[in-house]
Write a structure and sequence with these properties.
5-stranded antiparallel β-sheet; alpha+beta; 4 domains; Beta-Lactamase; 14 helices; 598 residues
């Protein structure tokens, strides 16, 4: 902007300078010419006046010297040079020079003009007598008879005639110089008043291009420029609002992506990772934030997944497939590769979406196994009931011993069938959180004693020892019946799967804000590979022995749901041949707004 201001200033100076020179040249010439003409007219008027006084005063040329006295008086009255010349060119009188020393004036242009019959003659030239530039005017002198007897001439220095004109020219020069200075000052002020706001607007737009939207135009200039500044301010305000909205949307989007249960990864057109979310790290079991800017091939080691991504890049279409990832544990993911337009026109980015459906597939498998196992478990007592009923109807009713034996078997199978149906119904209610709870403060030791009384006869038949190891008097808020069922199932399993003369111990203690109940036996134990599935419905480690023990295969599943329903958790520690220990962790203070306390 300073360069533009300098160019404008230089342009105005050049234009004004040229104009001033031309104006000065024309004006000075006009002033000089008008001054000469005006002074010439005055000189003529004086000459005519003097001529009128001298005409008709002499009779002949020889009487010219008689006029000298009058001319001397006239010379005292005027400052002009008075010269009297005869018709032969001889100077009779000169007020500014010695006539004896003055040369003949016959050849002077003004004298020749009079001799040629002109009334008044004017001329300007350098005087040979005074050696200065003079303006001459001459007129003939007439005798009493009207004949020309001499020539009267007045002259005046041109410098004197143009003195006033030179003063006017000096004033003109002063005026031009003053005008030039004012022009420079005005031009500087004008260019600055226009240029500085434009420079500020330029800086503001530059800052806006660098996303500094808080800057504003604050200068004061001409109305049009201020309107432009206000428009820039409106633009800056709109951009700032839009940028804030974009940032808020971007923040919301990132928060949404970071809290999705789906793994998200964005790839650019160069197959480089530009964004990942925490769930993607969790699915792959690796911190991928350090891989941003790297190729996805450094992250995904699955051939099927990489092939699906390449197919999306090649076809530029949505790709979907269920893929197994063999990491620390096998994971099944529902994979979607979605193309989206890139920031640069003509480019395409791709979003890799991984939804971990391992648990869904496991639950589907569990559900399928449950249906199969339930069908199998129900078929056994139903088949027994049907078979014995048909046998009895075919004639076995007559044999009382056979009848009693068959009826006892039918009763046992129907009881087992009834127990299984009740367990299934209870398990269904627990899954749907439909079990009503009556929470109260109880001592765990009293519940364990109730369980021991129930199982005492079964334990005595196997000559087993049931004991309580009570380091502390453990009290907690819990539903009495549910806690009793948990301990009953666990102690009952311990009695069932512990050989004769074994022992079952129940230990109760506090850990942090939880009550811990440990049920420990020295029975057959559970193999390591079976422990992860021990809480599945109808899952049995030793199926034949489980049925002989009278179990439905749903006891531990019910226990797990009951513990979780009480906001606790259960852990298993077991070793084959050495025994099993279940650890039940329950909160001391039960927190559930929907619970009802007695």
């Amino acid at each position: 902007m300073k360069q533009l201001r300098g160019r404008i200033l230089l342009f105005f100076l050049a234009v004004f300078g040229v104009f001033s020179i031309i104006f000065f040249y024309i004006s000075s010439n006009v002033f000089v010419q008008q001054g000469l003409e005006q002074q010439g007219e005055d000189l003529k008027a004086q000459l005519v006046t003097l001529q009128s006084q001298l005409n008709d005063t002499i009779d002949s040329e020889q009487d010219l010297e008689e006029l000298m006295t009058g001319l001397e008086k006239a010379a005292e009255a005027v400052s002009e040079r008075i010269t009297l010349i005869d018709l032969s060119g001889n100077v009779i009188y000169d007020s500014h020079a010695d006539q004896d020393m003055v040369e003949n004036h016959l050849d002077r242009p003004e004298i020749q003009s009079i001799l040629n019959g002109d009334g008044i003659s004017t001329y300007d030239r350098v005087s040979t007598s005074t050696e200065d530039l003079r303006y001459y005017t001459a007129a003939p002198l007439l005798s009493t008879e009207g004949e020309t007897v001499g020539i009267l001439r007045l002259s005046k220095r041109v410098e004197e005639m143009t003195g006033v004109t030179e003063e006017l020219i000096r004033f003109l020069l002063v005026f031009i110089a003053t005008s030039l200075l004012l022009t420079v000052l005005f031009t500087y002020y004008w260019t600055r008043r226009i240029g500085d706001p434009i420079e500020e607007i330029k800086q503001i737009t530059n800052k806006l291009s660098h996303q500094k939207y808080g800057t504003r135009y604050r200068s004061a200039s001409y109305h049009e420029i201020d309107d432009l500044g206000e428009t820039i301010n409106d633009l800056a305000g709109n951009l700032e609002s839009q940028m804030q909205e974009i940032k808020q949307n971007d923040k919301r989007m990132r928060e949404l992506i970071n809290h999705l249960v789906i793994g998200v990864m964005v790839l650019n057109e160069n197959r480089e990772i530009t964004m990942v979310n925490p769930i993607m790290n969790e699915i792959l079991g690796e911190n991928l934030y350090g891989k941003i800017g790297h190729s996805y091939l450094e992250v995904f080691k699955s051939y099927g997944l990489n092939r699906l991504i390449e197919a999306a890049f090649e076809k530029n279409e949505l790709q979907n497939r269920e893929i197994s990832l063999f990491l620390q544990d096998e994971r099944i993911v529902d994979t979607n590769i979605v193309p989206i337009p890139g920031r640069i026109q003509g480019t395409t980015n791709f979003i890799v979406l991984l939804y971990d459906i391992t648990e869904i597939r496991r639950l589907e498998r569990v559900r399928t196994d449950f249906v199969a196992n339930a069908s199998h478990e129900l078929r056994t007592p139903i088949t027994a009931l049907k078979g014995f009923s048909e046998t009895l109807l075919d004639g076995a009713l007559e044999d009382r011993e056979v009848l009693v034996e068959f009826l006892e078997i039918m009763l046992k199978e129907s009881s087992r069938l009834d127990l299984m149906v009740q367990d299934i119904l209870q398990l269904s209610k627990l899954e749907q959180k439909q079990v009503r709870m009556n929470v109260e403060s109880i001592e765990a030791k009293s519940v364990v004693k109730e369980v021991f009384q129930i199982l005492q006869q079964k334990a005595e038949l196997k000559e087993m020892e049931l004991s309580i190891i009570n380091h502390e008097n453990v009290s907690l808020e819990v539903d009495h019946d549910q806690l009793k069922q948990i301990i009953l199932n666990l102690v009952g399993n311990a009695v069932s799967y512990t050989p004769e003369k074994g022992k079952v111990e129940v230990e109760m203690t506090y850990l942090n804000q939880e009550a811990v109940i440990k049920i420990r036996d020295n029975g057959i134990g559970i193999p390591q590979q079976e422990q992860s599935r021990i809480f599945e419905r109808f899952y049995r480690v030793d199926k034949a022995r489980s049925r002989n023990a009278g179990g439905t295969g749903l006891g531990l599943s019910i226990v797990k749901y009951l513990v979780e329903n009480l906001n606790g958790h259960i852990e298993l520690v077991s070793e084959v041949g050495k025994g099993t220990m279940f650890e039940v962790y329950l909160p001391i203070i039960f927190e559930n707004p929907s619970s009802q306390r007695r």
